[in-house]
Amino acid sequence: HLSGTRMSLYDLVLLYNVHGETVKTGAKLPEDRIYGLMGLARDDEMKRMTEVKYDGVRNAYTRFAGLVAKENLDVLLLSQVTTKSVSSLPSWVPDWSAAQLRIPYGYSDLTTPVFSAGGNVIEHPVIFDVTKGSLTVQGYFVDSVCRNGKQSIQKDMDNNTVENIDYPSLTRFSDEITEFMKQAKNTEGSWFQDASN
What we know:
By secondary structure, the protein is mainly α. It has 5 helices and 4 strands; from the N terminus they run H-H-H-H-E-E-E-E-H. Strand 3 and strand 4 form a beta hairpin. The longest helix has 19 residues, at about 165-185. It is globular, with a radius of gyration of 20 Å. The mean pLDDT is about 80.
């Protein structure tokens, strides 16, 4: 941003509100974590689409998340925080004032997804209602979930490597993925039945 090129409002909100262990940008009103950055955003971006209304943090965060979701559904990944400082937020709305808001899994940095299984085009319009706190998106039935994974990759706070990965947790996670793949290959009708090892 310092090079003179303006960013989208969403990218600015990510830049100044999503951190690892560092201190977040301060704002007297929680709404200003969004509206305080509008003057820095590109003119052709969400700045025009965002209706500036100081009608409470819940409505401001919900409105912003709905507008972003129309362009990028990955904003929903940022709502997976176990505790929200704004308790009235709908479950799908990120809490931009949460102290522990971090880069979501599946992203290598703030704006770069590692994969895009659903593509990057939203074919059907996203509908949101601020008052109801609802979000409606097109979904596709793929299959039924018969088993959930239990392992996850953990951070190693004592590790000074770039990745900060707890390698035993990575091994357990990889072993579980291998087990799932073997199970999928042995499931009748599975697309993986004819796959090579």
